[in-house]
Amino acid sequence: MGGCVDGWADTAFREVREVFEATFADGRNLGAAVAAFVGGRAVVDLWGGLADARTGRAWERDTPGVTFSCTKAITATAALRVAQETGTGWDAPVAAWWPEYAIAGKEATTLADLLTHRAGVPAFDRPVTVAEAADPAAMAALLAPQYPAWEPGTGHGYHALTFGWLAGEFVRRHTGATVGQYARRHLGPELWIGVSGADAERTARVASPPAEEMAWSAEAGPIDAATVARMAQAYRDPASPLMRASANPTGSYNKPEVLAGGWPATGLVTTARALARFYRDLAAGALLAPGLLGDAIQERVRGSDQVLLLESAFGLGYMLPSQNFILPEPARRTAFGHPGAGGAVGLGDVDNQVAIAIIPNLRRDWLAGDRRAYDLIAAVYNAL
């Protein structure tokens, strides 16, 4: 499956290339890219396979891919940077800048609650169309009057899609820009949250393996069998918090209208090189003041996630190593970032000055035995 691997890796990081090549040889990847920086220096920039299995289009050096929830780290950084620029405290009530939100028991909600998945608004109360999802003002108007599923600040549950419009509203109300517009201006010109035209046409087409390869295993790493069973049941129940949070709005990420919609929790389209460069700049203090970043990556919540049903952990918008972000031991101590559905990962590490991004187009799942990103991250750390 796929084709040969192109690009380069520093000789000290040749294991990364070997691991990457193996994922094509054994069929785990269709098309993918991986990039890494260490100490500000590029050490890995590899890509290979097929961007579109239907046409045979190859994955090339500048092929962008859909990164799903890797987007949340970009949106969080935009919000934190705006807070830094405006002097807005993340522990002040959201009502100070979004008065319409201060109803239905949400009056004391803070920006920190929005960024740590403690807002209690993980899903929309009614079906949302793809057209509505392209309008951040309309999405904010839907979220503002909702009653929270739990008292804000008292528990956490993954806001799979609403996270983007909640945190994004802070950016929009303070700058007049969407998250996508702000990110391209201030965080990286190739971080597309909303992509159209030729850039959309170049984007790798998302694919899924045969159903039998997606069957969840009871031997899913450090996740116990009972938790796996609960999650599998939740995925089969359209009324479960997990499905309500992750499947509305719904739309194929191969559709132009979804790619152009700029969904600020899941819509980032970029190259592995650009995503790794974002984490390089973030870890180096170029995007946020070092003190602010240090505060933002401190653990604020950890424990059983009311939506995902397993352990998750967050700083201010960044996911930390946990059952939902399984990392090899050397990275587990100091890394932060965000994974995306199907195997994408963006990761930074201030202590080791490491930045890594992995973007595949063949969706898999850790609970189905997918170790592609884990093995690549381990290979980078093995070379330090």
UniProtKB/TrEMBL annotation:
Pfam families: Beta-lactamase (PF00144)
Protein name: Esterase
Domain Beta-lactamase-related intervals: 17-374
Protein source organism: Phytohabitans rumicis
Gene3D superfamilies (UniProt xref): DD-peptidase/beta-lactamase superfamily (3.40.710.10)
InterPro entries for the chain: Beta-lactam-related, Beta-lactam/transpept-like, Beta-lactamase/esterase
